[in-house]
Design brief:
82% of the residues lie in helices and 0% in strands. With 147 residues, it is an all-alpha fold.
Length: 147
Amino acid sequence: MTYQEAKYATSMATTALAAVIYAVRVRALKAEGYFDGTDGMVLTGRAILILIAVIVVAGILGQILLAIATAISGNTPDMDEDERDKLIDLKAMNWAFSIFGFGLLAALIALALGHPAFAVFHYIIYAMIAAGLCADMIRIWLHRRGF
């Protein structure tokens, strides 16, 4: 696995881990009635901001640990970005924006059909997470394919 592939795999792993832990925790809190009442949406907003912060910090720590592990193993990572890497990123981001757009549209349809705002906000967040995970998978696939 090249350094770029390992970088994207690390990003996927940290994002997925943070999202799963968040989903399990929020589901438990929702069952306890934590998000009900007048402060429900305020607490939802805080929970989502915490999730975003955790994903960013976990991603940074994951990349640092990957760089340390690569240096310890004696491999010198090829961190130069060429035109191929830029095109791979462009294709992956195109897919990510499309996936997020469909997720946002689905969330708005759910809102129009009467789903609670708590759920709709989470549909949007999960669409963002899915878009990021798919972008990383597409990057790995394109790198392995040789573009």
